Amino acid sequence: MIPILITIAAVYLGALVTFSLITRQKNKDSVSYFLAGSKLGSVLGIFTLAATLFSTFTMIGMPDFFRTHGVGSWLFLAFSDAAMVFAIISVGYYLRKKAKRENFKGLSGLMVQCYKNKSAGYITFVGAFIFLVPYVAIQIRGIAIFLKATFPEALPIWGWATIIIVIMLIYSEVGGLKAIIYSDMLQGLILLLIICIIAYNCVAEFGNLANLFAKVEQVNEKLLSVPGPKGLFTPQFLIASFVAIVMIPFTQPQVVTRIIIMKNHRSLFRMAIGLGVFALIIIFATLCIGMYGAVKYPDLSTADFISQALIADQSNLVAAFAILGLVAAAISTSDSQIFALGGELRSLLTGEDRKMLKITRIAIVFFAIVVFIFSLLTSDELVMLARTSFAGTALMAPMIFTAIFSERKLKMYIPICTAIAMLLFIGSMLEVVPNTILGLRMDLLLIIVLTLISLLLNYFGHQKKSVNPIG
Amino acid sequence: MKIKKKTLWLLCCISASIIVILGFTVLAIPANTFEPQLFGLPYALWVSILLSVLLVVLTILGTLVHPGNRQTEEE
């Protein structure tokens, strides 16, 4: 397997270098560097968004989640993703209109424009930073742990993490968002093909899906229903997760940017459809791998199970592509998020473009270092940490939705409430604040309260503008 | 024509909302039950797959009647 892996890894790295060099010449200002010229077609849109959304969390986390918690994982992620693509066509259209009107440079910058106050932008930026850094860190950690389990003698976890971050930084710093988008296309394709082949092999081992599920029933029939063997999938958990996931396209800057830079509304719509199909295929594949693991490796650790199912049980060629696919998945999500943080910072800076671009590029390196440190400290629960990240950024949804839809002069009440909600959420994770109040989970309670406050303030707390801003 | 499209879009939104609500009721995910199965798939799984596919189909239909689907030329 090693010679095959070295060969395809060399081809892959060559492709990344080519993308960076091709796009390097065109990145002369912030708009081309951070927004890739804002003319993204639907096919590139599907793959860049898919590669950004479906990452180590999907390839490693979801098979393990299915193996541990059972079929309720489908409702947790796939159902939420299907609703998310409907939300993209519903709300994305208005988001794009607003962004175009306000000369979009980043989500934080958009909030400054809408709320006419820099603090709204800082709250958005800090919120994105706090909740995206752990998410990026778990991508890096997930893949580093997996590589360590697969090649125990080669490098320590921090060594793998360093290599991934250095590769990611070089090509995204040089090529900007365009290089990231092209590499996302490549990574998305590898991810889709490999995970489907592995899922097919897992099912083929049992003959067909019905046999696989019959075996799962013998091993642990609680995996076949909710709330699952560990009782995780309660209605509250599922609803709170659903809200957090559906809000991703409007609250996570790397996704918001991709929605806005689509060539036109029609490209956006096609991209949403493609993304929905992509999501269902990928998650179905992780379901098959997870159920296979539930039967064959119920007691292994996450890293050992993934190493067995994705590498040891596959042919050399598939195993080599799986390793590359996993590394590519981690890189594609992490680079998008770190780069998006850079874009957010740029949208808050004012001054000569070249100088600001330089500052932002240095900041991207700083973000990468923070992610690296966090990746060495964070826990191994990929899916739960990712969910926390989604729930954290989802708290910004009422503030962002008000900015998109309100026709009134907006005051700072909603951004301030959002900041308080984020602090309370962090407090609940650190167990300084209770996790549940009146029987409601803190994340669900906060999003409900913020939504109500936003609706009330929109009708009673803000003056009407003289001109309709949405048009 | 415009009014008809608006109505159809509204219908898509209402249908999507109903599907989402259905997804979290005991109808879709009854606790600790995996019967009746379909092609060997447990109940909660095949129902939630069906609902997910319906949501994607609604997205496809939604793009055809969405108020913004004729605005490409303006951009």
Explain this structure to me?
The complex is a heterodimer of chains A (471) and B (75). A two-stranded antiparallel sheet of chain A has the order 1-2. Chain A is an all-alpha fold and 471 residues long. In chain A, helix 4 crosses helix 13 (265-296). Chain A has helices spanning 2-24, 30-35, 42-53, 56-69, 72-101, 107-115, 118-150, 157-204, 209-220, 235-246, 248-251, 253-260, 265-296, 302-312, 316-348, 353-377, 382-394, 397-405, 413-429, 442-461; strands spanning 436-437, 440-441. Chain A has a single domain, classed as Sodium/glucose cotransporter (Up-down Bundle), CATH 1.20.1730.10. Chain A contains 20 helices and two strands. The N and C termini of chain A lie far apart (59 Å). In chain B, helix 1 (2-23) runs antiparallel to helix 2 (43-65). The two termini of chain B are 22 Å apart. Chain B has two helices and no strands. Chain B has a domain at 27-66. Chain B is elongated and about 45 Å long. The mean pLDDT of chain B is 87. Chain B is 60% helix and 0% strand. The longest helix of chain B has 23 residues, at 43-65. With 75 residues, chain B is mainly alpha-helical. Classes of the chains: A mainly alpha (471), B mainly alpha (75). The interface between A and B is large, with 46 and 39 residues.
How would you sum up this structure in a few lines?
The complex is a heterodimer of chains A (471) and B (75). Chain A has 471 residues and is mainly α. The radius of gyration of chain A is 22 Å and the shape is globular.
Nearest-integer average pLDDT of chain B: 87
In terms of quaternary structure, the protein is heterodimer
Output the number of helix runs of chain B.
2
Distance between the termini of chain B: 22 Å
Instruction: Kindly report the average pLDDT value of chain A.
Output: 87
The CATH architecture category of chain A equals Up-down Bundle
- Got a strand count of chain B? 0
> Using DSSP, what is the number of strands of chain A?
2
| Largest interface chains and counts | A-B, 46 and 39 residues
CATH superfamily of chain A: Sodium/glucose cotransporter
Q: Could you spell the SSE succession of chain B in H and E letters?
A: HH
Query: Can you list the strand order of the major beta sheet of chain A?
Result: 1-2
Largest sheet of chain A: 2 strands, antiparallel
Helix and strand run of chain A: HHHHHHHHHHHHHHHHHHHEEH
Radius of gyration of chain B: 17 Å
